[in-house]
Specification:
Length: about 230
Amino acid sequence: MEAMWNQLGPGLWPAFWLTIQLTFYSAVGAMIVGSILTAMRVSPVAMLRGMATAYISTVRNTPLTLVILFCSFGLYQNLGLALASRESSSFLVDNNFRLAILGFVIYTSAFVAESLRSGINTVDFGQAEAARSLGLSFRNIFSIIVFPQAIRAAIVPLGNTLIALTKNTTIASVIGVAEASLLMKSVIEMHANQLFVIFGVFVVGFMILTLPMGLCLGKLSDRLAVKK
């Protein structure tokens, strides 16, 4: 037991800190891309609607592992896309970290877009019609009237997407990103007889990350709910 903690203890916080960073940067990127996809999805331009629909349908039905592997093997190893300086001593670590974020953004943005679209469906259509009759452009109607209300209505599904993203960061270990699950695998390899203890530690770690998210977002949803 002592040997296990000597290996697990020093790496526990850095591993979960990397998980937090993956979650944060991926969530910000997914929110930006997802918002753009949502605008395209409800755009009056048929081609934009078709592009957004095709992207969302394709990504949502593709396993996340394949998306992450595509970013690593397809974009980096085959196409030479590097997201870090090749002269840096930490190039491989930084590049894999950023490729993982790219993969999470590509994947999660599709679910963000669907969550926001569900929020748009709660907005009274008459508001958009009234704004259009006043001569407002689609851009103004979407950004000023529809989108702010859609976010308020979509807080709960967006929160569920954020929690799912936090748990999905474990997939980054397949390309060598040293987040929590990679540490768990390495500890298990050395201390297989302590399997349940190790699992328990990481389950508690992820619960500490995800439970406060759910509670805070639930309260935020109640506070910002659109009054009917």
